[in-house]
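REQUEST FORM: STRUCTURE PREDICTION
Request ID: SP-0412
Submitted by: Lab K.M.
Chain count: 1
Length (residues): 650
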Amino acid sequence: MSNSSKLRALVVSPTPTWPLNYGNRKRIFSVCSKLKQLGFEIHFVHYASEGDWRDYIPTETRRKMDSQWDIIDHVWPSKPLHDWPKEGEDHKIDEWWDWSLENHLSKTFAAREYDLCLVNYTWLSKALTLAPKQTYKVLDTHDKFSGRRQLLANQGIDKEFFHTTEEQEVLALNRADLVWAIKQEEAVDFINMGTTAKVAALLHIDEKRESTNPEFNNGTLFGFIGANNNINRVNISRFIERTTPIFTKYCAPITINIAGSICNDIEITDNPFFKSVGYVNSIDEFYDGIHAAIIPMEFSTGLKIKVAEALSHTKPMLAHEHAMEGFTPCHEYHKFESFEKMAVKMVELGYDNRELEALKVASSESHQSTENAISQELIELKECIIKQKTTFVLIPQQYGNPKALAHYIAQAKIDVINWNFDNAMFIILGGPNQARPHPSFIRFMSEHELEEALEYFKPNLLISLIEKFPSIKLLDDLKVVSLCKIEHLKEARYIKYNSYCTADDELYFPSIGHINIEKPEFNSKVDEVWIIGDKINDVSKKLLNLVSIGLVKKNVSLNTLKDIDNTITKSNALPRTIFVNKQESDLNYSEQIFLEIAEKYAIEIRNIYQPQLLFQKRNNVVGDYEHQFFPAWERFINNTLLGTSLTILD
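STATUS: Completed
RESULT:
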């Protein structure tokens, strides 16, 4: 499917998606990649807040990100980053918000329509408030930030990064239509906090890879890889302290390789069981170099990306039960109650490694279970957005040009459709006119792309506001409404409504309505009578002479809206009187529109086929037009567009 007819997602992230050397980068890259596979166009807005972007532009990284997504913008901070709370012990939810990001997003939403706005982290949730009503808003929390300071304090760790209160976090959650917690336990917490948003868990797992194994020449090799942060440091230090005596007691033939920047903060030089590997250039090489992964995390926040990494490399894995929150344990070794019990099993695997094969199978099962849960949640998101796209509206190319009558007709209909349909998709066939700006809600498509979009979204209703309906394939159950005759469709296949007729007609769908046409010609009248209908017999001529005393007669041919524009421009005014020499059922699209203009702008209408308009001058003022217009419009919307009348299209 072409980008013009795809779902559009605007993703806001404070972290880049390359290199994939941190868990949060992997998470964001994975979610965006899966959305892209589901048919979303990804517009990635990167708020460059991380260290490797602060002092210079990493050009190779930027080129790589350019190739990852359909559109990418980098927004540089305009304020100091990651400050401590300015008032009280915890951050206000918008304390890290930046006006430069707000300015960029405001302009982006003003220039283009998006089906989805996905914001990463609660402290950037204000971005959701900038998205228009019709955009579905999702907050990917990554972590629960209320209570974070207290949790760390209970473990003897000083406050770090962002931390807030439940009251402030709920403010962020309530800005979303959907909140993603990174594990089910946090989803329950968010619900219990009282958010009004829908809450679901979106887990994380990396793409599956079959890793290799080293020989057992030097015993069984275990591995842990982690970034240098206080939570990792405290957990791994406690694990080393508690397990070393057990390994020593049993002379365990094992080695635990510790890799990543965490090595900068731990001291293991005199420990025969632990080896500091330091920073590794390749995660794949690290996992290929061990027999099993260990995840010794008895406390933390968020999801353990280390678990996702190990499962994705199909490595046998031993984990503390806390580390498996958000994942499916598929082996008893996936849920140890203590570091000591984990250590005993590691000793056993050192002497007898046959259980590693069963652990490898368990890792594969857990990976598949997590992958299924992620896919299901993302598919449900896509279906939720698609279900909202029940109405397609074709609007004319002239929309946005105040010199064209078609612009005003389209604007009136767009307004009434927006009043009655929450998520209508407005489409112009063809490309944008580079000479003028276009509203953000318009999508430009070719006829082929429109066919694709109809097949993809399967709307219930297609409203045509254009003069020539495209020769496209329509879904069998699609309801079509048009003022113009659709040449290639049987009349029973669509509803042809009327813009000018008696006010009690159920198919009266007036075109101008509340819109005032801002053309100077509409401010004055010329002493002319404009004649609609060229077959004037003797009787008609006599009647015409009666109603045109003191006026210049002028035959007008109005086959298109452009004809109306040209005729009015040439006269530089509206006529005093319109003489209609046609049956109402024979009036074409443009003639109906012009007669409605006459009603709205108090032009005298004399109709040979409606005696009340021929012999008695109607009190044709704006108030009278509005008196019949608004009830008729509401009746058409309720009875025809929203009601059951469209069943005639079967």
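NOTES: The radius of gyration is 34 Å.
Reviewed by: T.R.
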